[in-house]
Amino acid sequence: MVKNYKEKEKEIFQSEEVKTENKKLNLIYSLTIIAVMIAMIAYSSVIFAGKHEVEDIVKGRGVNNTGRLSDYFPDLENTPGDTDVYYMEGKEPGGTLLVMGGVHPNEPAGMLAAVLFIENVIVVRGRAIVIPQSNASAFTHQDPGQGAPNYFSIQTEWGERQFRYGSRISNPIHQYPDPDAYQHYPSGQIVSGSEVRNLNRVFPGRPDGMLTEKVAFGITSLVRDEEVDFVIDCHEARPMNPIVNCFIAPEKAMYIAATASMTLGFDENIPIRIEPSPPNLRGLSHREFSDHTDAIAIIMETPNPAMDNLRGPTDVELIIEGKDVFYQKAAEQGGLIYVPYPEDIGMPLDRRVGRHTSGMIHLISAYDELNPDQAIQISNLPKYSEIIENGLGDYLLKP
Ligand SMILES: [Zn+2]
User: How close is the Cα of 344 to the center of ligand 1, in Å?
Assistant: First the structure.
């Protein structure tokens, strides 16, 4: 009896030892797996958090001063929505121009047109304010599933200038969660929830809204506080979208858009359409500035082949050279894309930026014709033919 009891006790004791050993091993395995997961999450968080190398924008000789958007709305200070503002004063008094780029950071020609303005222009009369990266948060990530490169580079005589290729909407780690549906303030228009991160759907913005609405409120405050007369907002669109290669103008800006469209055609042989801004499509910069401030505002659109669903691989070459065999096929079919696609040229970035710079030159002239007492005169902005001849890199300064 005694022996049996002792043996049994030994068995039980041994199995407890084994159990303890197994528990230890399980704990080691679990901790290892958790450590690997934490490392993977940390690594992908760094990428997801948009640890992007921020590009330099060089103050050209025409820049007198720089500031931040938070100067107009202090709530933006130390947030991912704050962004740089450049001030360029003319010697003679006149009107105030605001140039906006990077409202949509996946539309590189718009941002680059604003950069070329900052790095080249001398304001002769009046003054210019430039916001090259209007939605700073959207420059820190990319649209999921689109396969776009993080950066693209432009060759210059002294080396490469690298720029970020961003997203259409603000980074979800800066503004989360999206509502199921977004109700625009103050119109009450309802659109899909993610549009609350689209800067060009949330103007005029609101001070107690989500981050992108606060950015919009900051820019609208700048337009009011600086008594901006004329706003040019530089964008790109999908080549299969009929609203491309055009000026989009609300009622107040239609004469200026029409005049500039004619002079661009006559003087520079650049055909550009005019699209009336629908009064019921709310939240867009030109519509809301025109309705909520004293400024006149126009959006310009060029075609970006890296944005449309027809494209093949989305690489740096597509962004810069703008050539894709599928657009070629679409152009041959006729009626599928709304821009010319010459096989040997494609839709390159230099021509798209050139359309913006020449567009600005003609829009400002048309504005001056209507407002001789508050005229804005600029010099040294390279026009379309100059950019094609000399290359974009010729107009980018060395940081
Ligand atoms: Zn856009």
Answer: 26
